[in-house]
Each structure stands twice: as C-alpha cells, then as structure tokens.
Amino acid sequence: MLRHTYAGQDCSLARSLEVIGERWTLLIIRSALLGTTRFDGFLSHLDIARNVLATRLARLVEHGVMERVPYQDKPVRHEYRLTPAGRDLTRAVIALMQWGDRNLPQELGPPRRADHVGCDGPVHVELRCAQCGRAVHDEEVDVRRNR
C-alpha cells in the first residue's frame, strides 16, 4: 500500500492512489466489475494470497469502494459488492484496459472488451468538454492548478 507516500501533496490523483493504487486492489476491482463477489471467487480468479486479499478487501470496505454484505447465516459468510463509488471506477478500469490494448498489445488481441449492455456495441472511454460538448483529444488537454 502507498500509505503516507504522498503526504503533503495537494493532489486528487495522489489521494486516489492511496486507496486504489496498489496492484492487487485494481485487479480486485476488475474482478468485481466482472461479477465476482465472494472471497473464494477472488482467490480463484486472482491467485492472490489469502492475507493480502483480506487486507485489500478490508481497505476497500473502509474507504467505501465496496461493502461487505452477509449472504449466509450458518455459518455467517459475506460477499463484497461494489458501492456507487466502486462502480464509479468503471471508467478508470476500462481506460487502463484500453491503454494496455493500445500500448502493450498481445499477439492474440485483447483478452477482454467492454460492451454496452443495451446493444452489445463496444464501449470506449473518451474525453469530452463539459462546456461545448465536443470530444477532446489528449493533445488538447491542459491540466492546471485549481488553487
């Protein structure tokens, strides 16, 4: 985890990385977006150590990215569901997938794709100007200090 790595920095990206910036955390979120909800499901999909998974899931629950919900009473068992804040990471995960597809291509092509549930068309993350509504290319973006 990146705890305290960015102390003193006034940066939204740094704050985000404190919660989701560790490698396993983003893979857990990806698995949740693919429908995994149970601890054993995450274990089998990710080949992650039990203690690491438990720690990462607890942190995601602590920060409101996932919620821990009982699905069985005897014995009590829980599943992990994305909260609205967790679902809000869909764009970031798809953007990283698409970056990898473009910049780190595999011979067999992309292992996954994002499709629109309504029509099965491919979904792509894009930048769009909030003022004029026009699609914006990377070269047209100027990141500035706000304060």
UniProtKB/TrEMBL annotation:
Stored Pfam families: HxlR (PF01638)
Domain HTH hxlR-type: 11-108
Keywords in alphabetical order: DNA-binding, Transcription, Transcription regulation
Keyword Transcription attributed: yes
InterPro entries: HTH_HxlR, WH-like_DNA-bd_sf, WH_DNA-bd_sf
Coiled coil feature spans: none
GO molecular function, one term: DNA binding
Gene3D superfamilies assigned: Winged helix-like DNA-binding domain superfamily/Winged helix DNA-binding domain
PANTHER family referenced in this protein's UniProt entry, alphabetically: TRANSCRIPTIONAL REGULATOR, MARR FAMILY, TRANSCRIPTIONAL REGULATORY PROTEIN
Protein name: Transcriptional regulator
Organism: Streptomyces tirandamycinicus
Organism taxonomic ancestry: Bacteria, Bacillati, Actinomycetota, Actinomycetes, Kitasatosporales
